[in-house]
Amino acid sequence: MTPLTPSLPPIDKARLIERFLQYVAIGTASDPNSQQTPSTPGQLVLGELLARQLKQLGAEDVQHDAQGRVWGTIPATIPGQLPTILLNAHLDTSPEAPGDGVNARVIESYSGGPIGLGQGNLSLTPQDCSELDQMIGSSLIVTDGTTLLGGDDKAGIAVIMEVAQTWIERPYLPHGPIRILFTCDEEIGKGAHGFDPRQAGATVGYTLDGGGEGTIDEETFSADLAIAQLRGINIHPSIAKGKMVNAVRAASLLVSMLPVDWLSPESSDGRQGFVHPYEIRGSVAEATVSILLRDFDTPTLQHYAKRLEQLGEVVQWRMPGLSIEWTIRKQYRNMADGLRRLPESIQLAKEAFGILGRPCRTESIRGGTDGAAFTELGLPTPNLSCGQHMIHSVKEFVCVDQMVRAAEHLVVLAERWSQHGAS
Known about the structure:
There is one protein chain. The protein is globular and about 80 Å long. It has helices at residues 13-24, 41-57, 151-169, 197-200, 247-256, 300-318, 336-339, 344-355, 370-376, 400-422, and strands at 60-64, 70-74, 85-90, 105-107, 115-116, 123-124, 140-142, 178-183, 204-211, 215-220, 222-231, 274-282, 286-295, 323-332, 361-365, 383-389, 397-399. It is an alpha+beta fold. Helix 8 (344-355) packs across helix 10.
């Protein structure tokens, strides 16, 4: 491997692990049904901790704002009008798996093969994650199989915090102003709510919210959320003949009419979109069905929504007396168009990998990040990998060595932006 640049310091791996374990011990799963901001109190607890740590490090302009977001600034170490970089990760974890009471375990040097999780029969195997075979000798952190780990996105938080301390401890490292932002409720599509690019004052942003290593995400899905509110007629079941209209049954019928062998997460990959029913709630009188709409082609989302409305009309025809009201909520948009306004956002990230002598690749991701929303709002923000794997599941794990290399990449990337700004 090509030697690191002379200005690149060693990243404190032990300190990085300690940070990560501290962060995942705080349950921060977001709640899509909450009307609070942030949606869960654990995000405020973690935010308070991070704000306090940033102040202790010596960061400037530290704020823990009314929306639960955490801000901070690492001042430039070289003079001149240099581009400001925003680094972002999100505080919340997915509500799709248990997230409280995380019992993390550090594997100092992975020797290969299955990894037993907890006291049961659950194991993490190379069949679950083919990249495991490439991590022999690396340090991994896994769960006990009862909760997710929280690497999405506490791996990103830990990497950013470790690099922030590295920059402050070593003022000889060249970089322009660095803005830090930790957002809330990204997993439920609200991470960028209320975000004003002018507050960041940045030229470019990078989210640390990607899997594996050496990946620059330059395109995302466009995303909407469709919510069907079904209203039936409740009456005692003993006298229900000809009178009851069961909203739960109607919701089940609606979901059963959605495609399974195509246009579903289970059947799609690559650039194929999907329609994904992920939650049914309710009773005989009233039920809701929440459905994710995803596609790289933004106008296609409208076709998906129209098809859902047509299926709803069929359900109402089959169940007289039922009413269905649809709500379509915009979540985020494909970041590719916005990134074309600042091609350096991708090019300098590639150059930083080249300086480190490491391969990299650009990808289109079947999901979204806060960066997609930031980009749409005018701040070009690609997504970078930070060692996450098997996210949103109880088999989630992180590779600490990949987190270290993500931190090293940020150091070089910041230096390249300072050189670019001075050129």
